[in-house]
């Protein structure tokens, strides 16, 4: 995807969801381990041209009750 430096990531997130036919609430967009927020822009995060953004499935953690049983 290409995005203008002053465009909010919400446009990218929406386009990705449409292309993959997924609910974007089920994924997280990360750059260098930092989550991208819809209102941020590439300029806000000082991203370089050609950088790669990772898309990860949101995962719920396991339950820990303190006695070693899950």
Automatic annotation (TrEMBL):
It comes from the Eukaryota. This is Ubiquitin-like domain-containing protein. Residues 1-62 form the Ubiquitin-like domain. SUPFAM superfamilies: Ubiquitin-like. Gene3D superfamilies: Phosphatidylinositol 3-kinase Catalytic Subunit, Chain A, domain 1. PANTHER family: SMALL UBIQUITIN-RELATED MODIFIER (PTHR10562). Pfam families: Rad60-SLD.
